[in-house]
Structure formats: C-alpha cells, structure tokens
From TrEMBL:
Pfam families: An_peroxidase. Its cofactor is Ca(2+). PANTHER family: ALPHA-DIOXYGENASE 1, PROSTAGLANDIN G/H SYNTHASE. PROSITE patterns: PEROXIDASE_3 (PS50292). It comes from Paractinoplanes durhamensis. This is Catalase.
Length: 928
C-alpha cells in the first residue's frame, strides 16, 4: 500500500493487509511489551522500569543542534541551513533491566529537538547499525522471550524456535550478541536510527549520530554507573560533539522500508552530515531530561516514521511509558491459573451441555460462572471505536495535570490515564455480540400490543419499588443515547390498520404513523458499515447522574464544596419546575428520592471531611466527597441491589467476592480461586485496572438487557412511616415530570422511601409493561415507550433473540414452546412472528423463564456477569486508585461501613422501626 504521495519511490506495506488489521496486531503487541516490563520487574524485585533502555546513564536538557549548509532537497521543515535548536539528549543502556554499566549491552541515545512550544522532534538511536528484528512481530516476541534474564530467558528463546523458526531465532540472537559491547564512554559511540523516516514528501532516510570525540576512556573497576561519571568528567574538560548524518532510501533491495534487519550502510546510501550536536562544557546531568518520554511519533508530517517496526513503536513505547508511570496496568496471571482456567472452561463447557450452571451445587456454580466469564471476556468484548490507523504524528503529549490524576473529571476523561478519551462523554458504545442489520418487521406496535402491554399488574414479590427506582438511577449514570428533536430525523412506525391515528405531539393532529426522534449517530465505524452511537453520559460508574457530565453543569449544581439544596434538604428547581441535578430526564418521584438522598449524603461527607481537613479547599472537599459517593453507589449496587434482584446464594456470594474478596474462613473457595483466579481472592478494589480484550466501554447489548421498564407500577399508595396510615393514592403520571418535586416535598423523604420500601415493583416479564408508559408525554412529544424500546434495539443493530443467545454461547431455541410454557403466550408469539428466529431480543428476554430466584433471564445474565465486574475492574478509581492517598482512610472506612440501609437511616432516622439495620433495603420492608 502506498503512502498516498505519488512522487515517492518508497512504499509501506501493512501487517495483516490493512491499517486497521495492523493496529489490532499492534495493540496486542503493546500488551506483550508490558509483559516484558512485568517479567523484568519480577526478576529485579524493584519498580516497573521502561521496557527498553531502562537505565539512563546521562542526560542533559540544553544541548545545541546546529544545522549545516543543506542541499535544497533536504531543506525541509525545521531542517534549514544554520538553524539552531535547544535539544535534550538522553543516553542509556538498551536492556529492560537496571544493570551495571560494565555489562555487555547495546547503548541508546535519544534527542528531543525543541523548535517551538508547539513543535518538538524525538530522534531515537541505538549503538548497532541494524535491528535484530525484521518486523514488529519479531521485535515484540524477542523482547518478551528475553525479558527477566536467568533461566526464563533461555526458556523464552526456546519458545522462539517454534514461534519464529530456528533460522530467524538464531539470526536475531547472533545479531544482539554482536551488538552488545562494554562501552567505555557514551561520547565515543555511534548511534543509529536503524529504521527510516520521511524527509519531506519524497525522500526517506535513516539517520545516525557519530562522535567527533576521539579520546579513549578506561572504564574504572567497581563503579556500576561509570558511564555517567565518565561523561561528567569529559564535560568538565570541554564540549562533547556529535555529527548528525542521514542515509537516503535508494531501493527496496539495499534500503528496504519494512525489513529493519537489512543494513543500509552501502555505497548506494552514503552518509551525509546535516547537523552538529554540541553538549556544552560543564553541563550537568539533568533529572528532567532523564524522565523524558521519547517516542519517534512526537514529530511532524515532514519527518513521519516509516515501516512496521516504527509503526509499532508508537503503541509499544506509549504502553511501556504508561505502565512505568502507573497510567496503564497489566494483571499478572500465574501459570497455574492459566492452566487451571483453561481446563475449567473445557470441563464446564461439556457439563453445561447437560446441566446449566444454576442447577449445580453452589461451589461448583461459582466456578462455572468464573469459567463462563473467562469465555465471555475472550469472545464478547468488541471494540467499535474508530481508532487511529495507521499511526499519525503528534506534538509531544502534555503532562497530565495532578487534579486529573487524583479526581474524577465531569466528562469521564482521564479515568484511564493512558487513553484519556476512553469511556468519556461521546465515546462509542461497544458490543458484546456482533452488530447485525435489522428489519422493521414485524410491526413493533403489534409486537407491543400482543406481547408487552400490561393486562394486570404482575408483582415481583421479592423486591420493593426502591429497587426499581435504583436501577433507573443507575442507568442514567451509565448510558444515555443522544437523540434528535422530533421532526429532524424521525423513525417512522406505520400504524396497524385497526389504529385510527397517533398524536405525536401534545395537542397535535392525529397522524397515520408514530414518529420517534432518531438517535444522533456518530457515523460509520471502523468496519465501514456499522452505525455508531456515542454515549451522552460517561461510560464510567462515576455518579454523573448526580454531578453532571459537563464542567458548566457541575458548577451550576454546587454551592462551594456542597451540592445545592434548599434549607429543607430538597433539590432546587428551575423556572420550569424541574429539579436541578446532574441528569433529570424521564424524571419521576423514585428518581427524585434517590437524587435527594445522595445529594444529602454528599453534603454530610463535605462536613465530615472539612472537620478532619480544615486546610482543604472547597474544590478538594467537593472532589473527594464525589469520589466517596460514586464508590459507595458502586458498592451498594454490587453487594445489595444485585443480590436482591438475583436472589440466590450463588450470586450473593459471587457479588460479595467481587467487592470484598473471599472470606478467610471459606477455605474451599479460597483454594479454588488460588488455583483458577488468584486475583479474585482479594476483591476487585484490591486489584489493578484490566480491560481484558478491548478498551473499556459500555455496550449496546448492555443497554438492551437493562430495559427493565416492567419494574414500574402504574398505581401507588403512600403511607405514613410512623403509623402505617394511608396518606394518598397516585398513578405514575401523577408522580412524573415537574410534579415529582411537589409530591416529594408534600410527603417528605421518609414517607416516600417507606411507601416505596413496603410496595412491590413489577416483574420483568411479558404482558407487564406499565400502562402509563404506553402514552407518555416527554419533552414535547408523545411516545409509547414499549415501541420505542423495540425500535431502538433494532435500529442499534442488536441481533434478534436467537442470534443474541447463540453469540453468548447459549443454544438456540427451536420452537416457541422452548421460550414459554404458557399456551396463550405461545399462541400470541406464533401470531406475531413468522418463526422463532424473528423474535425480538427484548421479547425473548422477557419471555424466557429465569433461573429460580432471578428477577431476569439467564440470557440477560450473560451480559450482566461480563459487564458487572468490568465496570469495576476497568475503573482505576475502583481499583489501583481505591486507596487512602486518593479517598482518605476516612473515606474508605465510610464506604466500608455504609450500606443502603445505613444510608437511609442516616438521613431518615425515623425509619429505624421499619428498616432493621441488618436488612437489605431493596427487599420488602416491615410495616408498623
């Protein structure tokens, strides 16, 4: 594939056949580079160091690079005759371990040429004229194989014989051995780029630094850092100078672009001096220059790196640098875990053909779920984000500000410090199963009427309405699809013949179709055909429904360090009567109560933190309180809401292990996890971030399985918490929109929570969709939310139910009777759908008989077990940065000691008689 510059004689070819295929290969290779760092760290017993050139021997930040009188064709960009630039210089040993300077090794030199505040150029070189690796694959496999030293290095080289072949393995080993020397001075070594770059539009070159010093040096015995000391002594006597030279590309045989193992030194490519680098006499070693993160892609288009070995360096060097600086992490998995987990996957894959996981004994069921989660992590994390391919040049990345390291940002950026935009507002929804184009048949209005409409309320008797309010409260934090206003890009649903018309706007005319505001697309994905949608919330579990997702919104909600509340402790309202909070769409009394409760919790935390830290600013108080509240929400959902809606011993134990780890007395589980997943022994907050097989995002399939509108009752009875006496009756429509605030203030938070706590939500099943949501007025339009749910799922490319099941490693259903045992439901399914493969995913999830104790289907649960732990495991604020330095020890203790019940009783102590301290707040409360 050409670069697009027709005049150029050189060409680039992408591994895997395309830039995107190569990018995916490079992403995996970057992980292998981090694994080399982990092996080196383990061997050395110290901190993580750079994957390459780990030991800096000497560095300066104010050397001078002066260009000579260049031929016209080399006068490109900053390379102009007589131009002078301040240049940082860093010399290092090539090993990925910190070793004595007396050890034989390659030596490295790196330059950062400062042209302006916005333009710098990084030049990287090594003391061998040719690379040992021909391409990126050889480069990463050799680095991983030889990391750590000792016996592991020899075992790794043995593995390379099978991975790369004997001839290439032997060639690389010989090349490296020949290049390793015992250098006497970094000032007398020649340093080669070994890979080419462009020089303007048409020319490609390799470059090298050759010393102008000739004075020999004798390494002193016993000084492991003599190279740096020798350079200091040399500079005490005078300047140290190098000549920067280039060699031009001539042809693919003698000067290839993609094969880095070919030596460019030939008569066809003579060296051309272009500049002189001077390190001035008396220049001291610079700590700042030692810490430079050099990357050849820190440059401009005129000097773009060429060849796949250069292209992998962007991902590999960035990963290595981020790993070293605790901005990217790798989970070290013991060999016994890899072997045992593979065996478990095979074993339970066989067992599950005859017996599902939920019909196994508890301990075996837990191991079965762990094996299933491994399979789902391997196969069902699909990245849809359009990513940079091929690599592009860039300015030197700015240093990350401390507040972005220590606190959550409003839009979710910088949660992953190595990829700041990951999971931020606007990031694309990923997938758990491959997307698929859907038709609009059968008519979603018919599907809804025949299979979803509530004939009579079907209660979920193991839960209370707080559980319904809670999940909506959470979903608004997790997933929001932006949509066009009605009339801009409508989805048009034709009405069945027996429906005379639909009024799409309040007071509007009857129309022959239902119009639904279309979702705002981000365009086409990397595959060239999938339509992508961005999340209007951040993908992180960060409490954004309370705190907002934009800086201006966050500021509007604050009163100093606290959230704005009325003197009576309620959310303020705007001129339209809507309560002011982070996200107030689809608003009703249940959300009003949740938002009020957690706004009060934030303000109590601010007072507690201020009392302990009187010197703190309002900003630090606010941000720390937010961290605590967000983590508390995640903990409550993990260990309380989830075991309430999936009411089995297996899930109760599993979710507690997710957060707390395995109890010390549960020796059987400890042995099992020690063998299969040692990292799970401690609980996710005690681990490090791990995105597994794809960058973190929530998914379109995740949105689908959390369509739980049947939880909402149509009718509500409110009672006095102290006496149980009847106060009032309302329908859902009486409690939604701007009416919610009036009702909450009239009833009071305690009576509202009590009334919800003692009443049941609806069951998540067919024929139980709330009547109030079938003709709902919101934001100037009238919608049937059941139809909207069906249409949205289809339009977002979520496969139909049978394909969805198969992609999640479940058997396909063959008959409608496999989906429901109710004859009337089967009759209606047959009347609506031509065959079982046409059944909508949401319909199938509602129709499926769930495992005993479950509030939703086993198919939906597949996405749940994959994504529930992922939301914790990917988030550094819930893993590596879940520590006293970020939260304070007080904050961690507060989270540990606070349950949903304790939270309610803290703000409504009068509920103690009906909500025992040991009770799950999402299970039905006792009545006075």
């Amino acid at each position: 594939m050409t670069t697009g510059i027709k005049a150029a004689a050189w060409r680039e070819a992408y591994l895997g056949g395309s830039p995107e295929a190569e990018r995916q290969l490079f992403a995996r290779m970057a992980v292998k580079i981090m694994q080399t760092q982990a092996k080196n760290r383990k061997a050395a017993g110290g901190p993580v160091v750079p994957g390459f050139q780990a030991k800096v021997t000497f560095a300066v930040d104010d050397a001078e690079l002066r260009f000579l009188d260049l031929p016209p064709e080399l006068r490109v960009g900053f390379a102009q005759p007589g131009a002078v630039y301040r240049t940082a210089v860093r010399f290092s040993n090539a090993e990925g371990r910190i070793l004595s300077d007396h050890e034989p090794d390659l030596r490295g030199a790196g330059l950062r040429v400062h042209v302006s505040a916005a333009e710098q150029h990084d030049l990287l070189m090594t003391s061998a004229p040719v690379a040992h690796a021909r391409d990126a694959r050889q480069f990463t496999e050799f680095a991983l194989a030889t990391a750590g030293g000792g016996l592991g290095r020899y075992l790794g080289l043995g593995r390379l014989l099978f991975v790369l072949g004997p001839a290439e393995t032997v060639r690389m080993v010989r090349n490296v051995q020949a290049g390793r020397t015992r250098a006497a001075s970094v000032a007398t070594v020649t340093y080669w780029s070994r890979t080419p770059i462009t020089w303007g539009a048409e020319i490609a070159v390799q470059y090298f630094l050759r010393p102008l010093a000739t004075e020999a040096a004798s390494p002193p015995a016993g000084d492991p850092d003599f190279l740096g000391h020798e350079m200091q002594r040399r500079l005490a006597q005078g300047d140290v100078r190098f000549e920067l030279c280039v060699q031009r590309f001539r042809d693919e045989r003698e000067t290839p672009i993609e094969d880095a193992a070919v030596d460019w030194r030939s008569a066809a490519a003579p060296p051309e001096p272009i500049a002189v680098l001077t390190i001035r006499s008396g220049t001291p070693d610079s700590p700042a220059a030692r810490e430079l993160r050099l990357n050849p892609w820190n440059t401009t288009d005129d000097f773009r790196p060429l060849g796949n070995l250069n292209r992998v360096r962007k991902a590999a060097y960035d990963a290595s640098s981020a790993h070293r600086n605790r901005e990217r992490f790798i989970t070290e998995v013991p060999l016994r875990n890899r072997v045992a987990s593979a065996a478990m996957r095979g074993l339970f894959g066989l067992v599950n053909r005859f017996r599902p996981w939920h019909r196994l004994p508890t301990s075996l069921a837990l191991l079965n779920l762990a094996a299933l989660r491994d399979v789902l992590r391997r196969d069902n994390l699909i990245d849809t984000e359009v990513r940079e391919a091929p690599p592009q040049v860039r300015p030197v990345p700015a240093k990350i500000e401390e507040d972005k390291r220590d606190f959550r940002t409003p839009d979710g950026s910088y949660d992953d410090l190595s990829e700041p935009s990951m999971g931020a507002v606007g990031a694309a929804f990923g997938r758990n199963v491959p997307g698929r184009a859907n038709t609009d048949e059968p008519n979603p209005l018919v599907v809804s009427r025949e299979l979803l409409h509530r004939d009579a309320f079907i209660p979920a008797t193991s839960l209370n309405i707080l559980a319904a309010a809670w999940i909506q409260f959470q979903v608004h934090d997790w997933v929001v699809h932006a949509r066009h206003p009605l009339g801009v890009d409508d989805v048009r649903v034709p009405l069945p013949p027996d429906v005379p018309g639909w009024r799409n706007t309040p007071g509007g005319p009857l129309e022959p179709e239902m119009r639904i505001g279309g979702n705002i697309s981000r365009g086409i994905g990397a595959d060239g055909h999938e339509l992508l949608f961005g999340n209007a919330a951040s993908h992180w579990w960060d409490g954004s429904e309370v705190y907002g997702t934009q800086p201006e919104k966050a500021r509007e909600l604050r009163d100093g360090a606290k959230l704005r509340l009325t003197p009576e402790g309620y959310l303020p309202v705007d001129v339209h009567g809507s309560e002011i909070t982070g996200f107030n769409e689809a608003w009703w009394l249940g959300l009003s109560g949740m938002h009020t409760l957690f706004a009060r919790e934030h303000n109590v935390l601010v007072d507690e933190l201020r009392a302990r830290n009187p010197q703190w600013t309002d900003e630090r108080l606010f941000q720390t309180a937010r961290l605590i509240v967000a983590a508390l929400i995640a903990k409550i959902h993990t260990v309380e809401w989830t075991p309430a809606i999936l009411a089995t011993e297996v899930l109760d134990r599993g979710m507690h292990v997710n957060w707390y780890g395995v109890p010390a007395k549960d020796w059987l589980s400890r042995i099992g996890l020690w063998l299969t997943d040692a990292n799970a022994l401690r609980g996710i907050p005690a681990t490090v971030p791990d995105h597994h097989t794809a960058p973190y995002s929530l998914t379109e399939d995740f949105v689908t399985v959390y369509r739980m509108h049947p939880l909402i009752p149509d009718d509500y009875a409110f009672r006095d918490a102290a006496t149980g006496g009847h106060l009032r009756d309302d329908t859902f429509l009486d409690l939604q929109g701007d009416r919610a605030d009036d009702v909450l203030r009239e009833l009071g938070l305690a009576n509202t929570l009590f009334s919800f706590g003692t009443a049941h939500p609806g069951a998540i099943t067919l024929h139980n969709y709330p009547k109030a949501l079938l003709h709902l007025e919101r934001e100037g339009e009238i919608v049937d939310l059941s139809v909207v749910d069906l249409v949205r799922t289809r339009r977002r490319g979520v496969p139909r139910y049978n394909d969805f099941r198969e992609a999640l490693h479940l058997p396909r259903i063959e008959r409608f009777e496999d989906l429901s045992q109710d004859p009337e439901t089967v009759r209606r399914l047959r009347a609506v759908y031509r065959d079982v493969d046409e059944v909508d995913t949401m319909v199938g999830l509602f129709a499926e008989t769930p495992p005993a104790g479950f509030g939703f289907s086993d198919t939906a649960f597949r996405v749940f077990i994959l994504m529930a732990s992922r939301r914790l495991q990917s988030d550094r604020f819930l893993t590596a940065d879940y520590r006293p330095e970020i939260y304070t020890q007080f904050g961690l203790d507060w989270i540990a000691e606070t349950s949903m019940t304790a939270l309610i009783l803290r703000h409504c102590p009068e509920l103690a008689a009906v909500l025992p301290a040991s009770a799950n707040a999402f299970a039905p409360w006792t009545k006075p």
